[in-house]
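writing this on my phone so excuse typos. first protein, seq and then structure
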Amino acid sequence: METRRVILSIAVSSLFVFSFVDGLSFNFYAASCPSAEFIIRDIVTSSSSNDPSIPGKLLRLVFHDCFVEGCDASLMLIGNNTEQTDPGNRSVGGYSVIESAKKVLEMLCPETVSCADIIALAARDAVGIAGGPMVQIPTGRRDGMVSLASNVRPNIVDTSFTMDEMVKLFTSKGLSVLDLVILSGAHTIGVAHCNAFRGRFQEDTKGRFTLIDKTLDSNYAVELMKQCPVSAMASATVNNDPETPMVFDNQYYRNLLVHKGLFQSDSALLNENSTRTMVKDFANNQELFFVNWSQAFLKLTSVGVKTGNEGEIRRTCASTNA
């Protein structure tokens, strides 16, 4: 109970600190494009109805954008050696949803709403659509001008990372260990390609996988090997959450406690007493997870933002205005 109070206290105290960070503000488009957030939510909702995988894709998209160059839509830029070309980003999806929203907004409010804000708001809406909390986030982000593949790997979490590696990376983004545990809960929805967790298995002489990572539940490992045999195509995927894959809930933490975290980086959260305690608290109390998610997501979408005269408002998300 004491740990829950501490976590709640941290979440509530962070609300004021991060509400208007870096020049962002609530209702930023109230005068310039009052229907912006409604339009984005409507497009995310309709896209998710047609493709249930969209919420997970949009949530992953915001992580991969914000951790590289900050939340500035640098991941949306297309071209040689841009962030999209790095192998770590080739499986990221949801771009078409962002472009669809941008196209409508450009017709109604030309050169007003940034792609960076669309990404943040779309991810926010995706969580709400999937059953999670609807987070109020400030807007006013501007789009970046730089997108380099070489910036990707040093700035995104690899699924094989240890706790120390994850903490180091999150700290460099101004995010705490608590934020790390909370934001890892994003794995409660979405899918992963088989190669993202194959390091937990080894191919034997008969061309079959055997489990070598003993931190993974053996029965769950058998199911994963059925879905991802050695012969599986590169496009093959499995659900991040084997229990409620399309619902944003606290099942991710329950899975961890029974050793059904899909990635090595998931299982690593149980390796230290402090993070294991957080996992248990969130597994036992979904409301606690949702309250803390709201604040951690607010911090995530404030990482490295560009405001004022920085960057630009792109006319199309795939290219700069130059």
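second protein below, same order as before
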Amino acid sequence: MEVKVFAEVQLPQQRVYSSGVCFPLVLAPNPSSHVPYSFSEAIRAHNPWLQSRLHDAGAILFRGFSVKTASDFNDVVEAFGFDELPYVGGAAPRTKVVGRVFTANESPPDQKIPFHHEMAQVPEFPSKLFFFCEVEPGSGGETPIVLSHVVYERMKERHPDFVQQLEEHGLIYTRILGEDDDPSSPIGRGWKSTFLTKDKTIAEERAARLGTKLEWFDDGVKTVMGPIPAIKIDQSRNRKVWFNSMVAAYTGWDDARNDPVKAVTFGDGSPLPAQIIFDCQKILEEECAAIPWQKGDILLLDNCAVLHSRRSFDQPRRILASLCK
């Protein structure tokens, strides 16, 4: 199908693989197109083509389209037709903005957020993620992304025994939550927000559906998630992917309540080797693409194929997000 509305553009921060795939794919308005589509109408008209391109690339950055507000962004998300995923079980402090749109992680700007697949620590995770740059950063603040199967292949080559242990045992994630959100922490979502209830009985029921055990304290709760697989098979692409939050938990789940070293273990409870986790962190940085945000940018990620992170930044910066089944 000939698509005249979208033009593929090249940016210096993209990665280009030997297969010819550009990561991420960057689409802009086609300057020679005179089709009177709005952006949302163009998405609806060319949705199968866009989803095919997303499948090939794993991530699409839309740049230069007329998306100015949270409501505009919500219209774009709706145009793709994905079902909404309620944010139950996630760790990031977020605030609902409009419709299906939330703030991205609200932790302080000096904090980096390590690479992770969104909600990889629970069984019900989004298949697609949208990010929108409402206010571009003063400096920094990129959202680096990396192809998960590339990370798996490099880890398998460098640490085959470790990867085999992961495949056999999976991972257990442990996190201590307060009652209310702690905006000073990148994992500061309290249990009431995490389980979308103030009722401990309902929280228990929702945790159980996620395979999560709860141990209550006077001022909070300990959550134990897993064992849960750390390596998955991407069925649509027929390849293994590094689908976990191991590096994020071990290096980033650090606040007044949580010790990151205790936050993640092998599924049999044994500790993870620190030197291999830090080597994995190095691989993630080596393989990532980090394109500076511009106002109006929308980044669409296939959550099964791509890990993402956040670099520290100087304010102002406002990135919004939406999660889809």
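The first strand starts at residue 6 and ends at 8. thats all i got for now
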